[in-house]
## 1
Amino acid sequence: MFAPSQRTKSLIYEQALSHVYEFDYAGLAVVHLTRKTPCRDGSFRDEPRASAMITRCGNVAIRPHFTYLGPFAKNGLAAFQAESGASGYIDISGSIIIETKFSYCGDFGDKAFAIVAVKNDQYAVRSANENKYGVIDDKGIVVIEPEHAFIESPDENGISKIKAGPYGHSPTKGLINMKTGRVIAEPIYGEIYSRPGSKTYIVKRYDGKYGLIDDSGRMLFEPQFDEISSFDKRYGIYVSKVGEKYGLINDSGQILFAAKLDEIGGFTDNGLAYVRLGDKYGLIDYRGNLVMKIKYGGRYSFWGQKLWRKLER
């Protein structure tokens, strides 16, 4: 349990530690400070005051001169926000390294790029808080101009979704590689979906057609399907839909089975799934091969490599 030292207590005056965060790459922890403010009814409320950084010994490393501080990243930079609302980055000595010209600064973490935002004066009348988001490197150089409506935090592949479009309209969506700072899919799609354990992304055009793109930006399938769903990360396969028929595709860009089935069940650990065409059932494997012809009159379940129930003709 962390306990602040007397030195910490003396340096933060009468303010209270409202939260102590985990220690970062520099061995420092961000602390948020509050001050008791009297209310009309005689009670007190905690009012956010400032952020500081402390060492593992409880000593103050960065004094509470900022309204917000983020953790130090691997590159030795931490985001901050000044009382004016402007944001930038400091080093471990507290010196400003990237000047306060942003309205928002995200953390670098272990990446070479960070998400930043600037106020969009074009929409200042409509919304004083309207931001446009971009990306900078650890030298403060803008690598993606702040022209996007939003940039999400990166996923497990280091890929972020970006949104573009005028204020008050449904944004179009794209993808950016936060490891390289490169846009791998221009923001032209209505929706983009990711699946845990996959390096591919489902893209949906505004006409309702679905396609598939990988994390390098290679288009595996142009938007042509009415649906892409049910990703199985064990085998890297999706269920595709064209009209009312279903098929199988994989995350390498191959059509394993054309969309002509009425139903495809979930795959088991033995790599098999039941399929249905009309009122007849069969078996398909994860490579798209029919291992039992579609001619049986019931749905069948399997356990390991053995039939759990007998097939009924």
## 2
Amino acid sequence: MSEISLQRIKRIPDCIYEQRRLDRFWFFLDLCCQKGKNMLKGIPDLLSPEFLKILAEMGHGDRLVIGDCNFPAASIADGGRNIRCDGHRATEVLDAVLQLFPLDTFVEHPVIIMDKPSEQSELPTPVWGEFSRIVGKYDSRGDSAVSYTDRFTFYDLAKKSYAVVSTTEHAYYACIILQKGCL
């Protein structure tokens, strides 16, 4: 390599090398995870390469929000990590995530569901039963791993989360936070 080429390379910031490495990663994941042509065993099709990357980046204690169609995901994520899962229910996303995502065993309730206000106490929320059933499928604590919190406390917790997933879930109060544990 000529001296001029070496000087040019030295001027390229490290972030460009990192970007090239990430581009190769994205290309590989995109090839492996094309919808209906998943080449990785056990990876649900609805988990995009971007979604898998975020799940892999998350550490113990990090939180993931799965929001319904009314959840203000973009403003809660505030320009951060907002994954779109258009055309999918929150229950589908929860089931796909929990196939790969261990729940935190160091906290009593690693799953938090947005509770309805007292003035809507009669509003049916069958999705909560679906959430509990799915959690029980992947965590031996079942219902005892799940807690409920009011809308504004939920929003405060969501703002501190690692990522927010937007779904097109139409069920009432179908917003849930998962806290990641260790394998």
## 3
Amino acid sequence: MARAAAAGARSEPALQVSLLRAEDAQAGDVLDAGGYIFATPENLAAMSGKMKDFFDRTYYAALDQLNGRPYATLICAGSDAPGSRWEYSDRGWGLRAAGLGSPRPRSGATPERARVRGSNRRAGPEAAASPGSSG
């Protein structure tokens, strides 16, 4: 999903794109970027531990220095996870949601259905490469 989003962003000639794993990204990477796409799996209606660790490690170094920069989130959830939308970065860092679309509600998802189908995904990685896609 993250690789597809990076590939889609690279199709815009004016953008310089860096794809970093949460555990490898540092405060300097955050400060140097003009915008962000945060991609994470959904774990019990929350971001992954590695993503949480990233925010914990970089939060204070970037505080009050990113106000108004655009961001988007990509959350990979295998079943109905309405609580997985998080606004951690816009509340703390003052980022501005880029408005790339909103998640499509996934009515009728159950743990049994997710096990049977492997996931309740309606869109694959190709949707992440297309700005404005809501999956």
